[in-house]
Specification:
58% of the residues lie in helices and 13% in strands. The protein is of the alpha+beta class. The protein folds into three domains: 65 residues, SH3 type barrels; 102 residues, no CATH class; 101 residues, no CATH class. α4 packs antiparallel against α7, α6 runs antiparallel to α7 and α7 packs parallel to α9. The longest helix has 20 residues. The relative contact order is 0.09.
Length: 271
């Protein structure tokens, strides 16, 4: 976890329930107040923290550092890439379009570390938004001519997903078992197939993200009672029923689920 992510997690503890976005108010006295700016006037700034809302005289403030909404940062990145495509649409414009998209990418990479989710979300909420973002990138930048713009946007969508998942609300579900982790993974892979069955490239991106979530939840999960070998056999058979290898496009999901079933077996077999 990077340094900013750690600070985000620590700051969020100080905020009122329902908020993860933090602003830093540096006072002339040397103190720093962490919270969420709710309103401002020429003379005062109101900040919401876990203990309530407080007002600060603007004359006492040295500087204010605010964090942008991460979804809006991605939306702006998408709009600017689309603008570059529209300004330089033809094959003869490829060089200029490349220069423009590289500049846009550089700005996005500067803004991204200074952005946070505006609201908390669940793991599945984060993955659902990622699916929507991938679909948008595929439809907005069609064909080989715009491979560069599409790739940059898809990479940006993955970066946003990774940052949002750090703050997902349900990583430490006290009721989650190892089998629940596997069932959740299977359900996410089924949902992914329903969205991207005809788009294997996007399907694999979501499958990889779902696998990463499984790898993150399994170590925190409770072990399951019962015979680990019987549970493994049942999970392997179910994988072949849900993702049969004779159906095109299922091989990656089948492989991911079988590796996950083995990981569940290993975890449940520990003394």
């Amino acid at each position: 976890m990077d340094r900013l992510a750690c600070s985000v997690l620590s700051i969020s503890i100080l905020l009122a329930p329902g908020y993860t976005r933090a602003d830093l108010i540096r006072l002339k006295s040397g103190d720093v107040l962490e919270g969420r700016i709710t309103r401002e006037t020429l003379d005062e700034v109101w900040v919401l923290t876990r203990t309530g809302e407080t007002s600060i005289a603007r004359s006492d403030i040295e500087a204010v550092e605010t964090y942008a909404d991460i979804d809006e940062v991605l939306n702006q990145f998408h709009r600017e890439l689309l603008n570059a495509m529209n300004r330089f649409p033809g094959p003869d414009d490829a060089a200029n379009r490349t220069l423009m998209t590289q500049a846009i990418q550089n700005v996005f990479q500067v803004k991204l570390p200074k952005s946070e989710p505006k609201h908390e979300d669940t793991i599945d909420g984060c993955l659902g938004q990622y699916i929507e973002n991938l679909a948008r990138g595929e439809s907005t930048f069609p064909g080989a001519q715009y491979d560069q713009e599409r790739l940059l946007y898809l990479q940006g969508a993955k970066q946003v997903l990774d940052r949002k998942l750090l703050l997902a609300t349900d990583w430490d579900d006290a009721t989650r078992t190892t089998q629940t982790c596997l069932d959740d993974l299977r359900n996410r892979l089924v949902d992914c197939r329903s969205h991207f069955e005809s788009l294997p490239r996007l399907r694999q991106l979501v499958e990889q993200a779902a696998q990463g979530v499984f790898n993150g939840t399994l170590p925190r999960a409770l072990t399951d009672a019962g015979n680990p070998q019987l549970l493994l056999a049942r999970n392997l058979r179910k994988t072949d029923r849900v993702f049969p290898l004779d159906r095109e496009g299922n091989s990656n999901a089948n492989s991911i689920l079988k590796a996950a079933a083995r990981a569940v077996f290993d975890r449940n077999s520990r003394p």
